[in-house]
Amino acid sequence: MTEATTRPPDVDASTWDELVRLVAAGGLSVLTGAGLSTESGIPDYRGPDGERRITPMTATELLASPEARQRYWARSYVGWRRFEGARPNVGHQVVARLQARGLLGTVITQNVDGLHQQAGSVDVLELHGSLSHVVCMQCGERYDREVIDERLTQANPTFDREVGGEIRPDGDVVLPDELVSTFRVATCVVCGSDKLKPDVVMFGEAVPKPLVEKCFGVVEQSDGLLVLGSSLMVMSGYRFVRRASRLGLPVAVLTRGRTRGEAETTIKIETPLGETLTHLEQALPQ
Ligand SMILES: NC(=O)c1ccc[n+]([C@@H]2O[C@H](COP(=O)([O-])OP(=O)(O)OC[C@H]3O[C@@H](n4cnc5c(N)ncnc54)[C@H](O)[C@@H]3O)[C@@H](O)[C@H]2O)c1
Ligand SMILES: [Zn+2]
């Protein structure tokens, strides 16, 4: 049992006070990354050293061959139950409560796990889309992931979903080639194509421009940016930090390890996010 203290151990008092004052004043926009969901059991890409631990499949690779699609869908079919079973952690919950109190504004998230919404956040912009939808790259039809999941189960009635090891950041699980080669992919009910893709911005793809502009607007109208759990190595998130900094707005980064945004960061705290955000909520005036 930990006692409720005013700040996490290892954070110096002046840095902490600066953060509390900034959040208490209200008006911050929020940018979140994979580090906010690690405490829900979904691994991040980079970790504290900023090095990428896995090489994700690109959209070009996925569309290039039926074998790539078979591999993608077999691995993510097994991963989906585990990914979907992840629940919001205390960090997501604090963000939702501070939003409800009017202290935090729009949440721009790089995550594709839907955990902010599950925790009760309403104003969420998903920069990289969500794994809860699937899109046909041939005709554009969009499906609920559950629908595709059921179709995959029908097509693979004897496939063992409990195989494989740990879930990886993209929601998949590494499987042996012999198993992958037995997997039958689903097809689009509208056009019959097997070119189904998760409705996320895959590695190497760009975030839709109107969404980027909307997020720039959010940052420009805010009084500062609170970054939670992002290495900022991906430009799609880092550009909002740059914009905030160029406007002279404070940028508070709560993330373990080095980020690409050190030069733009005005407050940096590296303690685990669940703990940090719990203390932050307690430290704010009621
Ligand atoms: N949950 C998800 O939806 C998910 C998971 C993995 C990757 N992705 C995708 O991968 C890309 C990765 O970029 P990114 O910047 O979001 O993540 P990242 O993996 O590059 O960086 C995560 C950062 O969070 C830190 N971190 C991890 N756990 C933490 C904790 N408990 N407390 C404090 N800090 C912690 C790490 O040290 C790291 O610096 C994104 O584009 C995203 O779409 C999404
Ligand atoms: Zn189609």
Please explain how this structure is put together.
The chain has 286 residues and is α/β, with parallel strands linked by helices. The chain folds into 2 domains: 164 residues, Rossmann fold (3-Layer(aba) Sandwich); 103 residues, SIR2/SIRT2 'Small Domain'. It contains 10 helices and 9 strands. The strands form 2 sheets. A 6-stranded parallel sheet has the order 3-2-1-7-8-9, with helices on both faces. Strands 5-4-6 form a 3-stranded antiparallel sheet. The structure holds nicotinamide-adenine-dinucleotide and zinc ion. The site of zinc ion has 8 residues, from loops. InterPro entries: DHS-like_NAD/FAD-binding_dom, NAD-dep_sirtuin_deacylases, Sirtuin, Sirtuin_cat_small_dom_sf, Ssirtuin_cat_dom. Keywords: Metal-binding, NAD, Transferase, Zinc. It is an enzyme of class 2 (transferase).
Lay out the secondary structure.
Blueprint: H1 13-24, E1 28-32, H2 59-64, H3 66-84, H4 90-100, E2 104-109, H5 115-118, E3 124-126, E4 129-136, E5 142-144, H6 145-155, H7 177-180, E6 196-200, H8 209-220, E7 224-228, H9 235-246, E8 251-254, E9 267-269, H10 273-283
Parallel strand pairs: 1-2, 1-7, 2-3, 7-8, 8-9
Antiparallel strand pairs: 4-5, 4-6
Helix pairs in contact: 4-10, 8-9
Bound molecules: nicotinamide-adenine-dinucleotide (NAD) and zinc ion (ZN).
